[in-house]
Amino acid sequence: MLTSFPSLLKIGELSHQSGVTVKTIRYYENLGLLTAIERSDGNFRLFSSDMVQRLRFIKRLQSLGLSLVEIQDCLQINDSGELPCEEIATKLRQHIEEINRRIDELMQLRQELSNTLSNWSDSPRAMLGTICPNLGS
C-alpha cells in the first residue's frame, strides 16, 4: 500500500527524476537490474526512490562503455552489501586495453588506406576480369 512507503515512485515519476525512459526502465526491470517494490491498487509498478540513483549509476557505467551484463555484475556486488569499486576498476582497465587494441587496428587500417591511395590512379586502364585496377582485383 502507498501508506507504508510514502517515498515510492510510479514508473513515470521514476523516469522523470532519473532521465531514463519508461521503456528503458521496464527493460532494465526485465533484466533484473532494478525491481519494483510493489504494485499500487491500480497495478502500477512502485519503485523505491533509491532507484533514481541506481538508474543514474547504470547510465554512468554505460557512458564509460560497460555492457549491461558487466553492470549487472557490479550491481550484484552492491546488492550483497559490498562496494563494487574494485570490480568497476577492473572492468574499466579491461575496456582501456580493448580501446588500445582497437586504436592499433585502426592505425594499421589508416596506413593501409593511405598506402592504397598513394598509388591511386583517377583514370586507370581497364583490365579484363578486374573490377577496379587500383585495388588489383
UniProtKB/TrEMBL annotation:
It comes from the Bacteria. Residues 8-77 form the HTH merR-type domain. The keyword DNA-binding applies. Pfam families: MerR, MerR-DNA-bind. PROSITE patterns: HTH_MERR_1, HTH_MERR_2. Keywords: Coiled coil, DNA-binding, Repressor, Transcription, Transcription regulation. InterPro entries: DNA-bd_dom_put_sf, MerR-type_HTH_dom, MerR_fam, Tscrpt_reg_MerR_DNA-bd. GO terms for molecular function: DNA binding; DNA-binding transcription factor activity. The keyword Acetylation does not apply. Gene3D superfamilies: 1.10.1660.10. Residues 89-123 form a coiled coil. This is Heavy metal-responsive transcriptional regulator. It comes from Romeriopsis navalis LEGE 11480.
